[in-house]
Specification:
By secondary structure, the protein is an all-beta fold. The protein has 4 domains: about 160 residues; about 90 residues, Immunoglobulins (Immunoglobulin-like); about 80 residues, Immunoglobulin-like; about 130 residues, Immunoglobulins (Immunoglobulin-like, Sandwich). Helix content is about 0%, strand content about 50%. The chain contains 1 helix and 39 strands. The strands form 8 sheets. Strands 1, 2, 3, 4, 5, 6, 7, 8, 9, 10, 11 and 12 form a 12-stranded antiparallel beta sheet that branches. Strands 14-20-19-16-17 form a 5-stranded mixed beta sheet, with no helix packed on it. Strand 5 and strand 6 form a beta hairpin. The longest helix has 4 residues. The chain is rod-shaped, with a radius of gyration of 55 Å.
């Protein structure tokens, strides 16, 4: 029987220790009540159990403390009653940690709770006279109160157990009223179903696999043949109490979020109001790994020129508490040690010295060696034409005199094969000489623009030129020879004209390539290849 105060509630209980003592009695066929007035000293033997908020419990045996009084006294708590329980209050005091439940089992003390007043049309057992159900008189009212364990002769008004519950724990002092009657020594108080009263509950639960980053819960089930509230414990912690008195009792357990994969074992047990422990049920929660997701793979630039560099950034998410490794084309490029949120790395792919199209594949791998999805990016490296940085200076030479010429070129495409082609006859076709340096002579006097075309084989071309003034070779007499007026030497000797030191022909350039050759900065060549 449950009073109107009964509510579903949860209290935190970590463990329980019960001291179960009883009073032997002679066999009998039915309870016989011998007195309608029961004082505190007449209830010796009843068992009083308190369960504390930390999960511990204590069961004490009632004893007489005076002519009409009795009680139990624990560390920091006590329950006493003095005088006729019909109109004298029970006094419950606690000055220690909070108490979540108080259970008074009167049957071992040959006592019974009588809950209904006589003559009001309510169920009434013959010989029980007046009764009074639970009533708080002063102090902290319980969240729930219940009468259980009807005795064998009960017509619905006689019970062996009174249970009081406080969701947040009881402290302080309270007074309550609860009438009791006493059984005879010949036919002491007996429960209606002793087997059910002493049967422990059976508890069971199951867990289904989930993935890391998910939350889960379960339901604990308990069957108990007795009309008992069931307290459930999960991994040693009090999960809650189900106050239903029949059928399968349940309570939910929120296991919370599992940030990482693994195997997690849970145990459950239950305790009924009679202090009976259930079996220990065990189940394992399997949390499966989830591979990371590569969400972004970016290149700092999609198009670059030979000789330029590019960097890459990769971003990944993972519901698990995993650090992530990042890879490009199978090569590790970095680790993000964070275990939540978005993970990322930035890396340089280096410089690219040859033109072409390059495809890169990015991936991520978590600490459990699971690979992400791949993402690809394409880089286009554009060709850069060679640059002529040095070239023979403009020259003044005589006809048929060999000149040294040379050119120096740079090209960021270090794998390009450069071809040097020269045009000396100014026909616009660069087919007179091939190579970066050489010698050349001009048979006829005149002004020449020597052209250079350098190609890299990938379509890149550079042009430049330098000027050559070729002067005709003039015959002059020796110093000891007379010269005719027509310029001939009578004795047949000839001489090559030697320019005066201050004349234009007296200035010759010299270089590492020979007389008459100097380097100059490039000058655009106007002719085009035909």
């Amino acid at each position: 029987m449950t009073s109107s105060l009964l509510k579903n509630q949860s209290t935190r209980i970590i463990g329980a220790t019960f001291i179960l003592l009883g009073v032997a009695s002679a066999p009998s066929e039915a309870t016989t009540l011998t007195g309608f007035s029961t004082d505190g000293n007449m209830m010796s033997g009843i068992e009083v159990t308190t369960v504390f908020l930390d999960g511990t419990s204590q069961t004490l045996i009632w004893g007489a403390t005076g002519d009409k009084s009795g009680g139990v006294f624990g560390p920091n708590w006590s329950l006493t009653e003095s005088g006729n329980s019909f109109d004298s209050p029970w006094i419950f005091s606690n000055f220690g940690q909070g108490i979540s439940s108080l259970v008074i089992d009167t049957i071992p003390g040959n006592t019974v709770f009588d809950i209904y007043p006589y003559g009001e049309g309510l169920p009434h057992t013959d010989g029980s006279a007046d009764g009074w159900g639970y009533q708080t008189l002063a102090g902290q009212n319980p969240n729930g109160a219940a009468y259980t364990d009807p005795i064998d002769i009960s017509a619905g008004d006689l019970f062996g157990t009174l249970s009081l519950y406080w969701t947040s724990g009881f402290t302080g002092t309270m007074l309550f009223r609860a009438d009791t009657d006493t059984g005879s020594n010949r036919d002491p108080v007996q429960p209606r179903d002793p087997v059910v009263r002493n049967s422990p509950p059976n508890v069971y639960f199951s867990l289904s696999p989930i993935y890391e980053g998910q939350s889960t819960s379960t339901v604990l089930y308990a069957d108990d043949p007795g009309e008992d509230a069931i307290s459930f414990f999960f991994n040693g912690n009090h999960l809650g109490t189900n106050y239903n008195r029949a059928g399968t009792r349940t309570v939910s357990a929120d296991l919370g979020l599992f940030p990482d994969n693994g195997e997690f074992t849970y145990t459950a047990h239950a305790i009924d109001e009679d202090g009976n422990y259930s079996n220990l049920a065990t189940s394992t929660q399997s949390v499966l790994n989830v591979a990371p997701t590569l969400t972004t793979f970016n290149l700092s630039r999609r198009f670059i020129y030979e000789g330029q560099g590019v960097s890459a950034e990769l971003f990944a998410t993972d519901p698990g508490a995993d650090w992530e490794k990042f890879f490009i084309d199978g090569n590790e490029v970095g680790i993000d040690s964070r275990t939540s949120g978005e993970r990322s790395v930035t890396t340089r792919l280096g410089r690219f010295y040859d033109e072409g199209t390059f495809v890169f594949t990015g991936e991520a791998q978590d600490k459990d060696a699971a690979w992400s999805n791949p993402l690809t990016q394409t880089l286009r490296v554009l060709n850069v034409a060679p640059t002529i940085t040095e070239l023979t200076e403009d020259l003044v030479v005589t006809t048929n005199e060999y000149i040294d010429f040379a050119a120096a070129v740079t090209d960021p495409g270090i794998y390009d094969l450069l071809t040097f082609r020269w045009d000396f006859d100014m026909d616009g076709v660069f087919d007179d000489f091939t190579g970066s340096s050489g010698q050349w002579s001009f048979e006829e006097a005149g002004d020449y623009e020597v052209g250079l075309r350098v190609s890299d084989g990938d379509g890149g071309v550079a042009y430049s030129s330098f000027l050559v003034q070729a002067i005709a070779d003039v015959t002059v007499p020796d110093e000891d020879t007379d010269t005719d007026t027509d310029g001939t030497v009578p004795d047949g000797d000839t001489a090559t004209t030697v320019p005066e030191p201050g004349s234009v022909l007296g200035i010759l350039g010299f270089s590492a390539f020979g007389a008459g050759a100097l380097f100059k900065r490039k000058r655009p060549y106007k002719n085009v290849e035909r």
